Amino acid sequence: MMKKTLISTAILALATLVSVPAAQAKEWKTVTIGLEGAYEPWNLTKPDGTMDGFEVDLAKDLCGRIKVECKFIAQDWDGMIPSLNAGKFDVIMDGMSITEERKKQIDFSRPYAGERAGFATLKSNDLAKLAGTGTVVTLSGDPAKDKATLDTLREALKGKSVGVQVATNYAEWLAKNFKDTITVTEYKTVGEADLDLAAGRVDATVGDVTFYYSVLSRPDHSEMTLAGPEITGPVWSEGIGPAFRKSDPELRDMFDKAIGEALADGTIKKLSMKWFKTDMSPQTKS
Questions:
Q1: Closest alpha carbon to 107 in 123, 118, 91, 122
Q2: Global pTM?
């Protein structure tokens, strides 16, 4: 009797489970994208208040491919990840490097751009003659393997002050490799760092070279120049790509597929040449 009761109970439980409808994936009709609107040429805010830039153009293309309406919202860099996870927007597209540390909090699709960094200084500063200017070096992220390049940079930067945007790979890299050599000042935005550079309050800034390519071409930045080698490679990240809440894997997969298509048909290269004047397509499997 007990055995029959147990069997009946099991059948009833199974029937209950079967009758419960499976959780359905969210149907995306509108996707809100968070960006600074102040990281030219990746993204910027025009005088009329609308957004423009490489990532804005790319986002519009990707949203067209996945057939959703695309909206943009400005967000300060240091609140980007918390705001995503709080539901303020659905995707981050703001020159964000794909790192293992960030993967603990958020998800990424495949990258849509590679990453290359460098130092900017005033033409009147002795750092303007920094060795390696005009060259590109690849760093692995392993201090032992990168020792020769790091030693050269440490010697050249000894006693200098360097500005960098807070909570970036570049800030982490300076802290890890130069903390006993230079004075590091962190800023909320890259623009604030460049203002202090122009005023002579720091000797140099470090950041993405595509940003420097854009701002150094303007008359109000004519006294600044890139100095030393441009640095690329695994030292920075797996590339730059969109970020998603871990609870939205279907949205991540939609963007992943669309980015793959945009890489394959040359759209990303075309937009890269438009905004960066160089191909920043990721050197990874597409």
A1: 91
A2: 0.80
